[in-house]
Write a structure and sequence with these properties.
191 residues, Immunoglobulin-like, five-stranded antiparallel β-sheet, four-stranded mixed β-sheet, 1 helix, 6% helix
Length: 191
Amino acid sequence: MHSPSAVRQLAAALVVIGLAPVMSHAQIRFLSKDPGTEVRLEVAASFGPNPLRFGEYGQLVVEVFVADPWYIYSLDSDGESGPPTSIVLDKGIPFALGVSFESKPILELDVLTGAAYRVHKGQVRFWAVVRLNHPVDAGKHLLSGTLAYSACNGIVCLPERYLPFRLQIEIAGGAIRPEFSAPASIPVAEN
């Protein structure tokens, strides 16, 4: 059973490096009509730095727990096995999504095709560079989007699904801080 301890550890690490995160948690269960095809995913999202200033870069972290026997495809899936997992920001928000990363995928052998695919099982971390690219008033602003994924269990693959996340990000006035002025200056959220 998944516990939120990994998310708490991530939050503590972000505070230590100066990225006080904003957290959002959700648990979503998707059911299909066929017995044995229940998919359970748990998601927690965080973002830092908080507050963020116009023109600065931050880091969005999406933690996912994929319940056994299911797996989801990696960010760089070839699309032949299933659609790649991706982070998508909602339209109409003042943030732009940069490069996305993931914890190290494993190779899963497809018993029907004999091919090996890069997938994730259990605890997975996706993270992306995000920039506040539109000037907005100081205060709280919504950073929202979805984790798009396809889940399989070795017997059946479900069509692409969308797992939403929503975070309230504090925006402050002032000049761009040097430590958040470029994507390369943002610490990497590795597992």
